[in-house]
Write a structure and sequence with these properties.
The protein is of the alpha/beta class.
Length: 235
């Protein structure tokens, strides 16, 4: 970027934007999101930012998510199924390969990759590729990975809290880290009017999940890890 600050993408949370260099999720670099358990916080945190990235034909690339993407739920977030690409890859090498190919292709949209077993040298290579990518690149890693050094310029630890909140720490960003917890209200907008106010402050038991999404039989387009003929991948 020639020494200039790369563009950022608004997170949808004013308090978080205020803490991130440039006022949003960075582009041209990796954002590492550290989770205690995959599949719990990802959409609550990134959901507000993603719809703006599919305008004009952008796509959201999901590489090895822990659960099959649900077309109806994504549509409620403002993400049409036709603009979400699900890449089902189980082996760590396949996950990494798919992520690298998409990052190098510099697509419009956003890249979300679940890479729990990525090694430091693999992340360094991804960071080099990400410098040429104008889409934000989000890597989901286990919380324990915080003990290890990372080339990602931004590292955010995310936990679920009572009252439909997310608790965020920013152990690495440009400048000084954010050691205190940043609390974000992250209830899905379509549930705000459906849940009584007294329940919004009560943490749900582990086995109870609120949801207004009705399951259906539709699935998103699925690509095997080595079959990218219809995707804009540079070989």
């Amino acid at each position: 970027m020639g020494g200039m600050d790369a563009p950022t993408v608004a997170t949808g949370f004013a308090a978080l934007d205020a803490e991130l260099p440039g006022g949003g999720w960075p582009t041209h670099s990796l954002s590492e999101l550290l989770l205690a358990q995959a599949g719990q916080c990802e959409w609550r945190l990134l959901g507000p930012a993603l719809p703006a990235l599919v305008h004009g034909g952008g796509r959201i690339y999901l590489i090895a998510p822990p659960k099959q993407p649900h077309a109806g739920g994504l549509l409620q977030l403002g993400l049409p199924a036709a603009q979400v690409v699900w890449i089902d890859a189980t082996a760590p090498a396949d996950r990494l390969w798919a992520t690298e190919q998409i990052v190098k292709s510099d697509p419009a949209g956003a890249i979300l990759a679940w890479l729990p077993q990525a090694r430091a040298e693999q992340l360094r290579r991804l960071q080099v590729h990400a410098q040429g990518c104008s889409a934000p690149v989000f890597l989901f890693r286990p919380a324990l990975a915080l003990r290890d050094a990372s080339p990602a310029p931004l590292r955010v630890s995310v936990t679920l809290e009572a009252g439909w909140c997310l608790g965020l720490r920013i152990p690495k960003r440009r400048g000084v880290p954010l050691d205190e917890v940043l609390h974000l209200a992250a209830m899905p907008a379509n549930l705000v009017s459906a849940i009584p106010p007294r329940l919004m402050s009560i943490p749900a038991p582990a086995g109870v999940r609120w949801s207004s999404v009705i399951p259906d039989a539709r699935t998103l387009g699925r690509a095997a890890p080595h079959s990218f003929a219809q995707l804009p991948i540079a070989h």
